[in-house]
Fold:
Amino acid sequence: MAGTISSIKDDHLRQVRVLASRTGRHESGACLLEGATLIEHALDTGAALRFAIHAEAAGDPVSARLTEAAVAILEARESILRKAVGLSRPVRWIAVADLAEATDDMPYGEFAVVLDNVLDPGNLGTIVRTAVGLGVVDVVCAGEDIDLTSRRVVDASRAAVLRARIRRFASPVNAVEALRARGFEIVATSGRGPTMQGLAQLTGRPVALVVGNETTGVSDDVLALADHVVRIPMSSDVESLNVGVATGISLYELRTRALLTALRDHARASLVAELGEAVDATLAELDRTVTDTDHLTGDQLAVLVTLLADPTADPARTLGRDVTDATAELVRAGYLDQEVTPEGRQVVAGLWSPLRRAEATALAGFSSEERQVLRSLLHRVVRNCRRPAGPLT
Ligand SMILES: C[S@@+](CC[C@H](N)C(=O)[O-])C[C@H]1O[C@@H](n2cnc3c(N)ncnc32)[C@H](O)[C@@H]1O
Structure:
């Protein structure tokens, strides 16, 4: 316990009173938390708390958490506390938390929410809570009247505003231009947007989702500047959705799509994808050399070779792919009948030289040791993939 407050003139309570006004909050870079639950939420976010004050006889689990976080705890009479906070109902716990505004040099993440003059504290709190909950911490206030520090917003956000990286711009156009300069794709939302949100063709760049004022929506200038203006489809009985709800839907859908795109790009850049590309390129080279010589594709030759080695084999099964077209073409060209025809045998006999040429092209510049190593590595890949399921050793 850091001490007892006995007078309303105490310096801690003076700091609390300053936080009643927006200017006071901005100048002191702090906001007020009221209630033990909200203080616990704030501790969960990892926010820095300057101090906490509780009314007499308020023994709560939050005390232990504050002590653990090395936050100074003071005690005051409930009536003094209530007066300092300006509430008529009983006040048991308050705390003062640092606001963590983002600086210009701080990097953005892959997704940002831009509030185009959204003003209602409940909506603002819901939006920030939802955004932070879905992993989006970059929140851009576009418009001078937006205030994310009031008690109602902090409360409605369950203290998530303390987790957000908040930036401020005087106008939505300034905000959108600054985000575009940073490489963001601008996705504005409107119930009358021309593109259904799920069908917007996003490029994979970071996304700035712009949501609009409760009455006037996203400003016309921003709609004109945006890369996409998307709508969440609604029944015609409804003019628009509540902005907090609409933001939740948009965040969920667009974030999920962005994550899937990133996953796909990652898979494309993976070693497995590179192996696949090497196989495709080698087969294409084989196709080219073979086709130059015999006018047959690699698949057609593979079918012939398979049936020559074992006339009872099922080539699709042996080769592990659909060879219906290749087989039909061989029959049409007279290389295959009930079995491989003499013409077909002739083609296979002439196969070795194009095969050697394709291999020489694919492995040009490889020493014989490197070829050995490659062969053994490829054997290991095949063995690994064909081993029974179970933990890898
Ligand atoms: C209540 S609406 C504003 C309605 C306003 N009359 C207008 O013309 O846009 C507030 C914000 O919620 C979002 N919103 C609401 N319904 C939407 C929908 N169906 N599709 C996309 N965004 C929507 C938009 O960001 C919109 O600016």
Remarks:
- The two ends are 55 Å apart (CA to CA).
